[in-house]
Amino acid sequence: MAENVCRRRGILSYLKFPLSDITRQNSNLCRDDSEPLLQISEAPPKKRIKLEDFQPCQPRFTDNKENDIISTTTYRNKLKKPYAGLTSQHALFRRELWGTAIGGSAMASTRWIASTRFFMKDFTSSDKDIFKFLGDRGLVAPFACSFSHAVQDGKCLAVADEEGTVGLIDARYDNTIETERVRTEFRAHDNAVFDLMWSPDDRHMVTASGDQTARLWDVELQQCKAVFLAHTCSIKSVNYNSTDPNMWVTASRDGNIFIWDVRTTGMQTPEGPEGEMFYKPTNSIRSAHSPDNPKKKARKSCSLPHRSKPTSSVTGALFLKHQEHLLASSGAIDGIIKYWDLRNHSNTKASQPVQLSINGATAKRPHGISALILDNNGTRLYANSTDNYIYQYDPINLGAPLTRFTSPTFRCSSFYIRMAISPDDRYIISGSSDKCVYMWETDFPDENPIVLKAHENEVTSLSWSRDLEMFASCSDDASLRFWRVDKPY
Description:
With 489 residues, the protein is mainly β. It contains two helices and 32 strands. β11 and β12 form a beta hairpin. The longest helix has 11 residues, at 88-98.
């Protein structure tokens, strides 16, 4: 059973900082494994996190000159005067594309096909943007990250690691703040957390773990409110329903997709913590991406119970926006995307997809999909394939890919590599096995991507802040790195 209290290493019980001021001291990063941990006689009191009022932030774009070489380890020299070198022509061009800070413009409602590669080249990162994660046996790798919607101006990043701990990092500051203040953490699971997602109001968070459960957390109290138990293998992804915040979907290595609804009646076990409810799925799609096998069924055996093979794993599932009853899913066995009509499924019926994508891969052998995402407008569907291509589909008329993104050096060699799309849907970023982050313009798939080199191992999960000026990347080198727009002021 996962711990329901905030896990704090070396935290004095009298500290009562709000969420915006809470980070974790990094003085323990160099601690020898043989050194005994600090013994605390009694559990510290739960720390309440103050949810700040939502302050919508308008995206701000810079108009720096194009650079052929991008610095990813040090910041460029900044100009002293605000908007120095910004011509009136550039200002008019930017206003017509994205509107003004007050009121916008009539043209801003239309998607204009104009390259903004200059903005992509402004992302940079320094050594002060690197954050490490300390586990019970030393440094651990972060597996998933997600920016908040409104808390701390949308700059509160939740990060989950391979030991099941979730940490909250205030991205408004660099890592020097961790020498003074304590990072908020809580133990969410007793196994690795592979995915997590904030609720639309930022008051709750759902985590998906290798312990075969998903959990709903009260972010303010760091307290588990619900346990979702039905999968028989690790849960790989979780996604909210954008039209109904009470529902979400999980996809697992057991080959099953489950839909959950907290409005149903839960059950509390006598041995469970107070306030923690157990839920069953309201709908299910079983063996969603299992290979068709025309051979005879194997003779029944009285040996160990059957477990799904890794090839039948469902790597992603999400609700579509043009029809709320449709669900898209991807699997590890091939590059096929399937659509499911939730009105035609139940926990007892065999599931049949209503649409299938046409495999547009050029490779001779089938490749799986490591990540599946939908843009914010619900008009473009992206699939990250292990054949080293990102395919774009039309969510309304699913068929062959409309276009694809790649690079000679881009490598999607594992199912841990994820993608993220910018809040304005203009840019897509992906991790890679070659230790780099790749960034494309969604309207210019044939152009070479911007390659950001900083990590020392495979880059996995990514998340983009809501103001467009920052994103985060996780890596197997046990670090998380922030990438910020290098503003000319």
